[in-house]
Amino acid sequence: MESLFLDIARALTGWLQSLGISAVWADLILLIIQFACIAGIVTINVIVLIWLERKVSGFIQLRLGPNRLGPWGVFQTIADAIKLLTKEDIIPSQTDKWIFRTAPLFFITVAIMLYLVIPMGDGMQIVDLNIGVFYFISLGSLSTIALLMAGWGSNNKWSLLGAMRSVAQMISYEIPLTFSLLGVIMIAGSLRLSDIVAAQSNIWFIVFQPIAFITYFIAATAELNRGPFDMPEAEQELTAGAYTEYTGMRWALFFLAEYTNLVAVSAMASTMFLGGWQGPWLPSWLWIIIKTYIIMFIFMWIKWTFPRIRMDHLMSFSWKVLLPVSLANIVVTGVGIYVFKWMGWC
């Protein structure tokens, strides 16, 4: 079971080469197939996650959640997806149609590309970049462009205001999120995600970096526009934020991208702080799934427990609390590494 997916990849590559395809083209075809598999798995996983979040929110708020379609309401999300597929695709006449149509596609493409560098098991990494952390952070920041495109292309003052607030929020919280990962990078001595996982073979980095983990979690919550930090989409005067003019599957693509980002951010937290795919007995790819789902459950728990905060409090919390805390953590980590080396403990 441990090498199941690696064996499938090797068998596929060998079969392609047996057809007379060169090794370079066989690897390229395998890369395309892997990307398509990620897109398919993410789509199916989002259907499960939406049902799970409805059940979790129902449990927290003493409700039943979905319980009509199928056992425990498991077919409710599928029914909602069919409904969105059959809805009319309305594009207002005064929109910038090219930007309006491109924004949701750009958003979901960026979200899926985040998975290229995440190690989903021992050796199960599509691309093992030596700057994997930098790739994840820099590519994830492009989501702000997609939201701004959606607000600007809608030619609607509510959409533009919502998009601007979302962009301001995401940029503000990207800084402490990035700084929270620097402590882990300093201890591991590498930006390569496989090296960071290997450095946690004896002890997870959450033990050395608990403040960084909490900072990462809070900043990621704001980055994902999830409650209690979902003000740009929730305030009454903004209706639905940047998504006001979107209907049917175009709106669903934004929704799909948000959940795709949730899984990616949770997998990154598992990789950076919880030892990644490492664990006893079970296959490595199963361990990363378990840890990722635990992190996602905490995201859901926080969303459905705490009330929303005001927009000005949201912004000031990033600049006045999270940023100084993350900077202080970097200084303390650097001093700690120097002291440990001086004492000969590392």
List keywords for this structure.
346 residues, 69% helix, mainly alpha
What is the chain-wise order of helices and strands?
HHHHHHHHHHHHHH
The helix fraction, in percent, is 55-70%
Largest sheet: none
Radius of gyration over C-alpha positions, nearest whole angstrom = 21 Å
Fraction in beta strands: under 5%
Q: Give the low-confidence spans.
A: none
Number of helical segments with 4 or more residues: 14
Strand elements, count? 0
Kindly, what is the distance between the CA atoms of the first and last residues, rounded to a whole number of angstroms? 35 Å
Question: Which structural class fits the helix and strand makeup?
Answer: mainly alpha
Overall mean confidence score, pLDDT: 87
The best one-word shape is globular
What would you note in describing this structure?
It is a single chain. By secondary structure, the protein is mainly alpha-helical. Helix content is 69%, strand content 0%.
Task: Please give the structural blueprint.
Layout lengths: L3 H15 L4 H38 L15 H11 L10 H17 L18 H9 L2 H11 L3 H32 L4 H6 L6 H4 L1 H14 L7 H4 L13 H26 L10 H20 L7 H32 L4
Short description:
This protein is mainly alpha-helical and 346 residues long. The protein has helices spanning 4-18, 23-60, 76-86, 97-113, 132-140, 143-153, 157-188, 193-198, 205-208, 210-223, 231-234, 248-273, 284-303, 311-342.
